[in-house]
Amino acid sequence: MTASGRNTPGTGPAGRERQPAEPRRSAVVPHALAGRGVLPRRVALLSVHTSPLEQPGTGDAGGMNVYITQSATAMARRGVSVEIFTRATSSDQPPVAELAPGVLVRHIPAGPYEALDRAELPAQLCAFTAGVLRAEAFQPPGYYDVVHSHYWLSGQVGWLAAERWGVPLVHSAHTLAKVKNAALADGDNPEPRTRVFGEQQLVHEADRLIANTAVEAENLVELYEADPAAVDTVAPGVDLGSFTPGSAEAARAELGVPQDAVVLAFAGRLQPLKAPDVLLRAAAELIHRRPTLRERLVVTIAGGPSGTGFEQPEAWQDLARALGIAELTRFLPPQPTDDLVRVFRAADVVAVPSHNESFGLVALEAQACGTPVVAADVGGLPVAVAHGVSGLLVSSRCTGQWADALGAVALDPAYRAYLSANAVTHARRFSWQHTTDALLSVYASAMAEARSRQAVRSEVAV
Predict the structure, then answer these.
(1) Can you give the pTM of this predicted structure?
(2) 340 CB contacts (<8 Å, ≥6 apart)?
(3) What does each C-alpha distance from 268 to 25, 305, 306 come to in angstroms?
(4) Rounded to an integer, what distance in angstroms lies between the CA atom of residue 89 and that of residue 72?
(5) Is pLDDT of 438 > 90?
(6) Pairing mode, if any, of strands 103-108 and 96-100?
(7) pLDDT digits (tens, 9 = 90+) for 139-153
(8) I want to staple 60 with a disulfide (CB 3.0 to 4.6 A). Which of 10, 46, 50, 106 is the partner?
(9) Which is nearest to 368 in space by CA: 250, 260, 236, 252?
(10) Is residue 245 a contact partner of residue 433, using CB atoms and an 8 Å limit?
(11) d(CA 12, CA 6)
């Protein structure tokens, strides 16, 4: 064990050899803990490469931004102050901005005031860490009670900050390099060894690891040799106040979509990982099978370039033209929440064909609007989508199978109505309130374990 009490590679808590165990699931109601005074007063959240103030759907902004924003806001409603540290990308950004009551965003200068590719960010971690430590130095001792880092770049900063402040480090990977590289999309670049090494370090140094699903928890244990007792499975949620069922007719009228159209939709970052090409090819196949469908089919793709998608930002439009469906395809920019709700309500089915997803928030959001989802059977999507109940899972990338699944939902009103009703029920099992309850439980447990370690060290010192 390190001087801070964290685990070293090959050991579990207190230096014990790792024993087989199931990753734990957090389910403690926070108000019950609050009476015992163990909830954190203030949490430091780290998000180096993307700000929660950015619009999801383009660049590096995606589900992680939603996760941080929603969970931080929910924590603040419970009386826990939250400060989010992110890299400043413009000189116009204020040093501190309020995201919501009780939630502050601190913009830390690190490198040039511009967006940087994630491959360029490791060189700025020293500067970012210095800014985080400097911000804390102006506060009274014990200002933060726990550090929660999101993505491996933030974890590297959180590792040092938690050591320096003497508080627990909780880490969420969101995606894992070894998992992504095992299911790499055509035209996508593999994750570098630097990231693999960084993730491995964090797995052994963090006090707690948050996994979105049991599959991710297993990946941490099997691929990174995580201590199972240090892994907590906490499912992300969905904003059930914003993503709600509504009139498809009204949504189509506002979007200018014909009422009798067959609408297939995709929402997310436009990059090979998210595989919007799968939807385009399947749509073309449906028209090949049923030529008359050309008169009614509308394919809506909402999002902006991201990752290697920046190398060919018009690749998806070019593909639509090559497939002969350009006139049927509508490309929309990243959508704010209210507009995204409209896109989902107007659709007959939403496709989530990603090569990998640690969870797949878009799938939950669409279902909460009453729209069935056809998703790839990968990562956390089998949790986000109940196969045959709220949507369908496709186990291959075969164009024919995707056309089968999309057609089965979009072209059968009775089946679609069945899935739609179940989709709403399924989505309501997830909420940011439940997610936050579980996160606060993990924080409280990690803090209690840290206090116990400190007590043992104090006794040994005496």
Answers:
(1) 0.86
(2) 267, 302, 365
(3) 29, 9, 9
(4) 21
(5) yes
(6) antiparallel
(7) 999 999 999 999 999
(8) 50
(9) 236
(10) no
(11) 9
Report whether 82 contacts 45 (CB < 8 A). Answer: yes
Dist CA 459 CA 462 (whole Å): 5
Tokens coding 263: 């609408």
Percentage of the chain lying above the pLDDT 70 cut = 88
Cβ neighbours for 265, distance < 8 A, ≥ 6 positions apart: 299, 300, 301, 302, 343, 344, 346, 347, 349, 350, 351, 366, 371
How far apart CA 193 and CA 176 sit, in angstroms, is: 12
Q: Say which amino acid occupies 462.
A: V
User: What contacts 38, CB < 8 A, 6 or more positions away?
Assistant: 444, 447, 448
Q: What count of other Cβ atoms lies within 10 Å of the Cβ of residue 257?
A: 19
> Tokens 């090949």 belong to which residue?
288
User: What residues pair up with 104 in beta bridges, in sequence order?
Assistant: 83, 98
What pLDDT was estimated at residue 118?
Answer: 83
Instruction: Bin 268: left if φ > 0, else alpha if -120 < ψ < 50, else beta.
Output: left
**What's the pLDDT tens digit per position in 95-112?**
999 999 999 999 999 999
Separation in Å, CA 20 to CA 119, 170, 311: 35, 21, 44
- For residue 11, list its beta bridge partners: 17
